[in-house]
Amino acid sequence: MTDQHFALFDTKIGLCAIAWGPRGINGTQLPMGGEQKIRTRISQRHTEATEAEPTAEVQEAIDRMTKLLAGEPDDLIDIELDLDGVPEFNRGVYVIARAIPPGKTVTYGDIAKQLGGVQLSRDVGQALGRNPCPIVVPCHRVLAAGNKPGGFSANGGVVTKLKMLEIEGALVNHTPSLFD
Predict the structure, then answer these.
(1) What CATH code is carried by the domain that includes residue 26?
(2) Number of structural domains, the chain?
(3) Half-sphere exposure of 169 toward its Cβ, with a 13 Å CA cutoff?
(4) HSE of 7 in the Cβ direction (CA atoms, 13 Å)?
């Protein structure tokens, strides 16, 4: 019997998923384009997890994420995460990202400077691309230089990122290009 679980939940941006174990939430998944795709993705990332009813603590996190994605500001900073196995540098990036309030943004360079220098910007971007807990760790609030959206590895890419920022009321300098 495993002590790792997951559940699906619906939000304004689509069906999401959450994974948890005895030490807290260890994964969230943004919409993937259908129930089967999101189930497959969460099962690939959390091979030991079985689908289950959320605990009271996990249900509270789901409710708060759902409200955030419906436009109710909540920094989610007190939601307990289990980031065991996540590299120390990435955890440092996530701590800084979690301090960004809803509706506000910072750049990859801003986070890099806090971690030792702007030359770490690419590493910051890679850490955010591997973020196991999007929404709770708000990687969507981190922009490229010039407050441009930059990349977003979630399904839907930059469109999903911009949608999340729009819900939060954040201003982004976005001029569509051939590469969006």
Answers:
(1) 3.30.160
(2) 2
(3) 9
(4) 17
Q: How far does CA 82 lie from the centroid of its chain?
A: 14
Strand residues in 34-165 grouped as ranges (E): 50-51, 106-107, 142-143
Provide the token pair at 152.
Answer: 């977003």
Known catalytic residue at 139: yes
Structural domain range at position 63: 5-68
Instruction: Verify that 146 and 93 share a domain, yes or no.
Output: yes
Query: Quick count: other Cβ atoms within 10 Å of Cβ 80?
Result: 12
| DSSP code per residue over 99-136 | TSPTT--EEHHHHHHHTT-GGGHHHHHHHHHT-SSBTT
- 162 domain residue, yes or no: yes
Catalytic residue among 15, 136, 139, 164: 139
Rounded-to-integer distance, Cα 149 and Cα 143, Å: 5
* Cα–Cα distance, 169 to 176 (Å, whole number): 19
Tell me phi and psi for residue 102, to 5 degrees. -55, 140
The pLDDT tens digits along the chain (180 residues) read 569 999 999 999 999 999 999 999 999 999 988 899 999 999 999 999 999 999 999 999 999 999 999 999 999 999 999 999 999 999 999 999 999 999 999 999 999 999 999 999 999 999 999 999 999 999 999 999 888 888 787 777 888 899 999 999 987 775 554 444
Residue 154's pLDDT is: 77
